[in-house]
Each structure stands twice: as C-alpha cells, then as structure tokens.
Write a structure and sequence with these properties.
Blueprint: H1 3-8, H2 10-26, H3 30-40, H4 45-60, H5 62-70, H6 80-95, H7 100-112, H8 121-133, H9 135-140, H10 150-160, H11 162-171, E1 179-182, H12 186-192, E2 196-197, E3 203-204, E4 222-224, H13 231-236, E5 243-246, H14 253-260, E6 264-269, H15 272-284, E7 290-293, E8 304-310, H16 325-328, H17 331-350, E9 352-362, H18 371-380, E10 384-386, E11 407-408, E12 428-434
Helix pairs in contact: 2-3, 2-4, 2-6, 4-6, 5-6, 6-7, 6-8, 7-8, 10-11
Bound molecules: S-adenosylmethionine (SAM).
Length: 437
C-alpha cells in the first residue's frame, strides 16, 4: 500500500470490499477474513478501524443495499465483485459519517485499478451519485425484513410469531451496546465507568469508547461480555473450591466468571490458538484455570461437581455484533451443529458427579440449538432433571424465561427503559441436575 492510498482512505475501502467478497465466497466469519487481510497489508490502526466499520455496516444492511441498488439499475451487473463494490460505496453514503464524494471517488478509483472492472468507473459514479441524491427515500424504506435472508425470516416467524420475529429483525439493524462483567462491586464500578448497572448485574457502557483506556482495564477488574452471555455461568451457581469443567471455553468470558467465584476450573477448547487467548485474558484478570486443548468429546477426567457447556452454534443470536452471520450460515450448518451439540451434551452428562449441575447454552436463536436440544437431552438421560430458572435469578427479567424454565434472551428484549440502549444477545440457557442415586 502506498502512502497516498492511506491518506485518501483508499486502502481501507479496498480491504472492506475484499473482506465482503471473501466472507461471502468462503462463508467464513468476517472477523477472521479481516484478520487475514490486515496481516497481509500494513494499514494504520485508524484505517483498519475504517475498513472494519465499512465491512460491518455493509453486512448489517446488505439487504437494504442490494434492494436500493437493484431497483435503481435497469440491468444489475452479473459480476458479484462489482455489486459488492457498489454495496460498500452505498453503505458509506447511507450509513456512515463519510463525505459522499469520498465514497463515490474511492469506489471509482478502486474499479479503475482493477483489471476486470477498469471500464466500470463511469457506471459506478452514476449509480452511487444517484444513491446519494435519493438517500432520504432509501432510508425511509421501513420493512424490517429487508436485512434478513428469507430462510431466517421464515424460521423466526415459525418459531417466535410474526410480531416478535419482526422485532428481532429490527433489532439487528442497530449497533449492540457494550456490556462489562466485573469481578466485584458492580454498583461502584458502574458509577466509576459512567455506565448503567443492569438488573442482571452487568454494566452497560453509555459511551462507545476505547475499552483499554477505561479505569480498571489494566488492573483486570472487569471484562467485556454481553449481559446475556453472563447469565449461563451465574446460573451454574459456582461455589469456592468446586471442580467445574468449562467444555467449550475460549476466549474465556465464562471461565473468568467461574474462576472469579473461586471454583477450580478446567477450561477445555479444541482450538489451541483460542485457548491461548483465554490464557492471555485470564492473566490480565489475575485469574487462573487449568487449560486443555482437546476435542471435548475425547476428554477423560474424574467427574466434576458442575459443567458449563457453551456449545459451538450457528451464532444467530449475535447478528447485531456479527451481521455477516446472517449471510454466511445455512440450514445445513444448523443441522450439523445440532448433532455436535447433542454429542457434547451426552459427553458432559458422562463427566458429572451424581448430584452435579449442568448448564447448556448457545448464542443461537434457533430451536434446534435451544429448547429442542434441551428436551431431547432429557429424553435421552432419565437420570437428569431440569432445574428451572426463576426470574429473580436473572434480575427479574420474566420475559426471558420460557414456560419450561429455560432462559431465552432476544436482541429485542428491553432490559432498560431507554429503547436505544436496550437489547441482549440471543442466548438459550438450560440447567439440569444429575439426580443423586
Ligand atoms: C461459543 S464459543 C465459546 C465461548 C466461551 N465459552 C466464552 O464464554 O468466551 C465455542 C467454542 O467451542 C470450541 N469448540 C468447538 N467444538 C469443540 C469441541 N468439539 N470440543 C471443544 N471445544 C470445541 C470453539 O473452538 C469455540 O472456542
């Protein structure tokens, strides 16, 4: 990358364009694609942040962008990379605080430097200028489903009903809040960090700010964790000295909660690289856990007092944070992952002491990875019963408890009166007990 590219932000835009194309082609997480691209190029931290912001907002509003572009083109181009370049340009015009001319000129320049698209500069210029002129009309389009692929729309309507499903889709269009879990004294930390103490005990930050510069970061007093993601470890009720296994542990938000409660934790993850991150995170927090890089299905260990299984899943509950999930996952992924979740649940059952507790959770909105998985587990394991969760255990959020006593949080759940700052990641949590015999 040359210096003038960096000065004009061309490098950021080129990487954002490449990231969108590669993520969709390889069906990989956007974060992983961006990491690869950032490793290969040397962009400043500011330009990396711009590339990330452009790529994320392009995915968050991909349906709206596609609709706006297609309805303004007589004959939409067949070249997918050209459509992605238009989408990346239009995303900046419509949803980012970027001068229109910077978005248009950079898209034209990127096309001119591309061997296959060098002829398309005039076309791109005309289309993006029209998007800028018709911004108000495009933004007035209020169909909440525009930014959700049809297969997910159908699933969510079938599972949650029209109204709730539409509110989920709507919530996915907004940036999520940033929540922190503190080691202790959440009320005092909420004040110190100028945040809001949520009824569940997490702190919601009011300002979007550089996390590492906040008080308490260096000293390891808190970590970033969505308020819903903090519920499973709390519901396991870890006690000092208990032996607890966290079977899919990295990067370690839940391991940290268990260790902070004084439990002796075995943190298991099949990815050694992700476990390395867990170790770094625990080191900052001055917490300890034994770690083992192994497929949890193959774990051999003496029985535990309690087990947390935060199973790999489609992650459709995190679409606010990772909007690429909506466009890269498929029904087939859900089918395969639910098989893995059942096997991991069976393994967890075999590793518990009589009388032991098991919490199963996923950050998915899909029934196969949530309630249906819990029912099937109980049917396969008559030695286990469900320990229903009560509203007082989750800060009185009765709406987040299913008739069976499991937890089901949604991106549209209101945890604060301020609608703009409300919402939770979509988590499912079920708690079971091995009946002592
Ligand atoms: C949802 S993430 C866990 C997040 C973590 N519990 C936290 O709170 O930070 C799922 C993790 O499961 C791991 N994983 C996937 N399949 C696994 C398996 N068969 N055995 C162990 N870990 C697995 C992945 O590497 C990933 O780190």
């Amino acid at each position: 990358m040359n210096q003038s590219d960096e000065q004009t932000g061309l490098g950021s835009r080129r990487l954002a364009w490449m990231a969108v194309t590669e993520t969709l082609k390889r069906r990989m997480p956007l974060d992983d694609v961006l990491d690869e691209l950032f490793r290969a190029e040397s962009l400043s931290a500011r330009d990396e942040a711009l590339a990330r912001a452009i790529a994320i907002v392009t995915f968050r509003r991909l349906g709206t962008l596609g609709h706006a572009l297609r309805s303004r083109l007589n004959k939409p181009p067949k070249d997918e990379r050209l459509m992605h370049l238009l989408a990346v340009g239009a995303a900046q015009i419509l949803f980012l605080d970027v001068p229109d001319h910077a978005a248009v000129d950079s898209a034209v320049e990127l096309a001119q430097g591309d061997p296959k698209l060098h002829h398309a500069g005039g076309f791109i210029n005309a289309v993006l200028r029209r998007v800028a002129r018709e911004r108000d009309a495009i933004l007035a389009e209020s169909d909440p489903w525009l930014d959700t692929p049809t297969w997910l729309e159908e699933r969510w309507i079938a599972q949650y009903g029209e109204d709730l499903a539409a509110r989920i889709a709507e919530a996915h269009r907004s940036l999520p809040s940033i929540d922190l879990t503190v080691k202790g004294d959440p009320a005092a930390w909420a004040e110190r960090l100028h945040g809001t103490l949520l009824p569940t005990g997490s702190i919601r930050l009011v300002e979007r700010t550089a996390i590492r510069e906040l008080p308490g970061f260096e000293e390891g007093q808190w970590w970033v964790q969505d308020a819903a993601a903090a519920l499973p470890a709390r519901l396991l009720g870890p006690k000092p000295g208990e032996r607890i296994a966290d079977l899919c542990a990295a990067p370690g938000g839940k391991t940290a909660q268990l260790a902070a409660a004084g439990a002796q934790v075995l943190a298991v993850d099949r990815s050694a690289k992700r476990l390395q991150r867990l170790q770094e995170n625990l080191a900052r927090l001055n917490l300890t856990a034994e770690t083992r890089a192994i497929d949890a299905e193959k774990l051999d260990a003496p029985p535990f007092d309690a087990i947390l299984l935060d199973a790999p899943c489609s992650a459709t509950g995190t679409i606010r944070r990772h909007p690429d999930v909506a466009w890269t996952k498929s029904e087939e992924d859900i089918r395969k992952l639910s098989g893995l979740q059942s096997r991991l649940l069976d393994k967890a059952a075999s590793l518990l002491k009589p009388g032991g507790r098991l919490v199963y959770c996923t950050c998915s909105l899909e029934a196969e990875e949530g309630g249906r998985q819990a029912e099937a587990f109980l049917a396969r394991h008559p030695a286990f019963t469900r320990l229903p969760v009560t509203p007082d255990e989750i800060g009185g959020l009765a709406d987040c408890i299913t008739p069976q006593g499991d937890v089901r949080t949604l991106p549209c759940h209101e945890v604060l009166a301020d609608h703009e700052r409300s919402g939770l990641d979509g988590f499912f949590v079920a708690r079971f007990m091995h009946n002592a015999s």
